[in-house]
Every structure is written in structure tokens, then in C-alpha cells.
Amino acid sequence: MRIDVVSIFPEYLAALELSLIGRARQDGLLDVRVHDLREFTFDRHRTVDDTPYGGGAGMVMKPEPWALALESIADDAAASGVADRPTLLVPTPSGEVFRQATAAQLAEQQHLVIACGRYEGIDERVFDWASERFDVRLVSLGDYVLNGGEVAALAMVEAVGRLLPGVVGNPHSLVEESHSDGLLEYPVYTKPAQWRGHEVPPILLSGDHGRIASWRREQQLERTRARRPDLLSD
Ligand code: 6GU
């Protein structure tokens, strides 16, 4: 899979060189390219923002640098033989919520482009224009506000990247984790069995795999009821 990320803070994305995703890139499983939006400006101050039409607080990202950046990425991908229509992901608190199912859908794509906005957002016309060449999806991490799309881009690349074949060493760990079956994960324990006056639930030491499996399922349901009842009702 190829993922291009466009940002005015490309250094923010340096974390994608670490850990599982960094390894996947080294192994050639994931081709991540980070671009500086300011490379697509031509004035002395490399301006990417301007005041909003209609008034109001803050600044809006100008459309032309985005068009030039996205065009150059789409042209390059087409020239390097990426056949599929790319998906343009736009992290924004006004998007649809990014869920495990979203990550799973995106993991099927050949090419993702993530447009990290700052300030009050990107001129809306960029999304209309881009829909000719991209499947455009505005996506939010949840109901709170971040200062820009970079932290969300990190989350999305990690959530999608770990679903690609070969990225997670033991693919079984993808099956038994929170949200993979619509429930929260069961609690886990390791040695020692007694620790600072707290003990491991004895059933886990019983060796009875059938009873352990049903205990874990009960724990999943109980936690989901307590912490995320919304997952059970919809
Ligand atoms: Cl995706 N972007 C921003 N800027 N804020 C957010 C978010 C995304 N998701 C939650 N808050």
C-alpha cells in the first residue's frame, strides 16, 4: 500500500519511522511519503492561509497549494503504476467517525492520501475539485478538537497499516482485540501470579481452555456494558 501525507508540519510524521509501521516501511510492505504543503507555494512567504470569506475567527487554508500538492501526488502514483483511484482522507472534527471498520475498508485500498489541515480548515472547494480524481472521505477521531490533522493522520496510518498482511507478526493478535468483534477486549495478566497483594483470576491458572474462553467472553460483555454501552445498543 502507498500512503502520501501532506502537512505544513512534515516533522510531525517522523513517528511513522518507528516501531511496527517503521519496520513495515523498511520491509517494503508500506510505502509512506510525507510532503510539505509549503513546497506548493510560490510567494516569498510560502503562504498557505488567508482570511475567511463571510468573516469570523481564524484563518482558512488556501485552495491552490492543496490542488497542486494533490495533483502532483495523483500524477506520480498513476505514473508509477498505481492503478486504483486513490482515497483522499481529510482528518477533521466535522467528518464521519473513524472506526475499526473504516480502517479495515481502507486497508483494502492501494493508495491513500491524507490531507492534514490546520487553522479553521481547508477551503471547501478543494474537496469538490478533488472528487474528480479521488474518493474523498472526511474523517474524525472522535468528539473533541485537535489543532490539526497530523495526530489523526498518525492514528489512521497506524490503524490501517497494522491490518496489512505481514505487518503484525502474529496475525492472530488482530482477531482477539478490542473492536475486532464489536466488544472491548478481556483483561490480560502475566507473571507473577501474586503481585503486591493482587492475584491473577484463578480460572486463568486452571488449564481449562473451555472455561477460560467463556470467562473471557463474560468479561468482554461486562466491560462493554460498563464502559461502552453504546457499542451494545447500536
Ligand atoms: Cl481528525 N482532526 C482535528 N483537527 N480534530 C479532531 C479530529 C480530527 N478528530 C477529533 N478531533
TrEMBL record:
Keywords of this entry: Cytoplasm, Methyltransferase, S-adenosyl-L-methionine, Transferase, tRNA processing
Locations listed in the record: Cytoplasm
Pfam family, one: tRNA_m1G_MT
Record GO terms (molecular function): tRNA (guanine(37)-N1)-methyltransferase activity
Gene3D superfamilies: 3.40.1280.10, tRNA(m1g37)methyltransferase, domain 2
SUPFAM superfamilies according to UniProt: alpha/beta knot (SSF75217)
Domain tRNA methyltransferase TRMD/TRM10-type: 1-233
Residues involved in S-adenosyl-L-methionine binding: G117, L141, G142, D143, Y144, V145, L146
UniProt superkingdom: Bacteria
InterPro entries assigned to the protein according to its UniProt record, in alphabetical order: Alpha/beta_knot_MTases, tRNA_m1G_MeTrfase_C_sf, tRNA_m1G_MeTrfase_TrmD, tRNA_m1G_MTases_N, tRNA_MeTrfase_TRMD/TRM10
Enzyme Commission number(s): 2.1.1.228
Record carries keyword S-adenosyl-L-methionine: yes
Family classification: Belongs to the RNA methyltransferase TrmD family.
Subunit structure: Homodimer.
Function: Specifically methylates guanosine-37 in various tRNAs.
Protein name according to UniProt: tRNA (guanine-N(1)-)-methyltransferase
Source organism: Micrococcus cohnii
Gene: trmD
